[in-house]
Amino acid sequence: MKNTRQIFLLTLTSFFMFSIVVFGQNEETKLEIAHLEGDFYTYTTYNTYQGVKYPANGLYLITNEGAVMIDTPWDTTQFQSLLDSIKLKHDQNVNMVIATHWHSDKTAGLEYYRKKGIKTYTTVHTDSLSKENNMKRAEFLIEKDTTFQVGQYSFETFYPGEGHTADNIVISFNKEGVLYGGCLIKGVEAEDLGNVEDGNVQEYEATLKKVQQKYPHPQYIIPTHNDWNDINALKHSIEIAKDMKKKE
After folding, report:
1. Cβ distance 135 to 104 under 8 Å?
2. Does a structural domain hold residue 13?
3. 142: CATH
4. Global pTM?
5. pLDDT digit string (tens) for 95-108?
6. Does residue 3 belong to any structural domain of this protein?
7. 151-204 pLDDT per residue, tens
8. Structural domain for 46, as ranges
9. Nearest CA to 165 among 143, 120, 135?
10. Shortest CA distance to 211 belongs to which of 241, 183, 234?
11. Tens digits of residue pLDDT in 132-166
12. For residues 234 and 241, is the Cβ–Cβ distance under 8 A?
């Protein structure tokens, strides 16, 4: 009887392990969170553009006054999941969200988070384009390049000019060497500038060089749609922009 019970339990365990492997392979990952350094974390959600599935990276920072989120999830099903994950992982609530341009891979969650009582920010330029294109809008507007102090951390917004869009900004945590480039900066694996339908290919190179001049030695560069593990992303983006400008 004892041996029969052991065999049954072993068989049951094997079934569940098999189920986890098989069904786990069929499940699509919708939200990924990775540690960058210190209190900095990247998060990635996914969506489809012109029939192709793309990742979209964002960033969040844990401070002693709550979490700061840079850009919102592109996948609308992950707005609350990201909040829940941050709460579970860090026992912190998100208190502030900044979107870096008007496209939906940055702004989709602004209204949702505003209704949750979270302070949401974009530039005045982004708000104007969001309104014009019927995108989600923030509660608070940034009128010029601004330095924010949240808890023990300081960071600044910088508008370098037109590139991916007319309103794209980057965000720098100067002390920690973290430069969030958003869609303006491409990863080293990128072969082109991506979607520039609302951008300016002629100005793109000059815009990126302004970023490079202002932040010459970041330790981390976070692009939206590519891997962030290579510090040469900005340099690579400048070369791509230079080549594309010549071809136009």
Report:
1. yes
2. no
3. 3.60.15.10
4. 0.88
5. 999 999 999 999 99
6. no
7. 999 999 999 999 999 999 999 999 999 999 999 999 999 999 999 999 999 999
8. 30-247
9. 135
10. 234
11. 999 999 999 999 999 999 999 999 999 999 999 99
12. no
